[in-house]
């Protein structure tokens, strides 16, 4: 008999996903990605002229990434130095991953600013940040070699692997695994494991589960983007 989690989901069930593109009208591109009660918004400004004099003339574009979490997105409403350092580090990680898929050579002497904000966190905010960023870049018309999609997994009772952990599951079982995946080339862009010592077999089970989740997210994102393009074409056709 398959284990049912405390929230009523099966081990391989992903929470309800809600996507919205262009929620921020003043930005060049924006998107929200919601999974369960976790909500992340991302927006893009650019490409525009490089603001720094030092990098004024470049043979490829410059990507700037800022990641932050609202004080009310977590139970701890205090701002502290460690939290700011973690946000900066994760922002640098996002920058590194997306520099690998944005065709920056198409944006000579230009700058792209990507802002990502966690509005509410009930687990899986990092994977939601990757997904929201991909959607915002697409909405801004930024050239990508492929999507970056992400999903987390972890262990529940008796080292039972499960996908899309909520915050209570992450804290209770002290195991969280994150993968950012490139579905077109079937390569892992980033991997993070926050847990005690695990065997190779246990890690592999988390990898397989997270990649399955990434492919599911990719299907949802791809379908949404295609439908959004079709709707926009119909709109302009009747203008």
TrEMBL record:
Keywords: Cytoplasm, Exosome. The keyword Transcription regulation does not apply. It is found in: Cytoplasm; Nucleus, Nucleolus. Belongs to the RNase PH family. It comes from Euplotes crassus. SUPFAM superfamilies: Ribonuclease PH domain 2-like, Ribosomal protein S5 domain 2-like. It comes from the Eukaryota. It holds the Pfam family RNase_PH. This is Exoribonuclease phosphorolytic domain-containing protein. One of its GO terms (biological process) is nuclear mRNA surveillance. Residues 14-142 form the Exoribonuclease phosphorolytic domain. The keyword Cytoplasm applies.
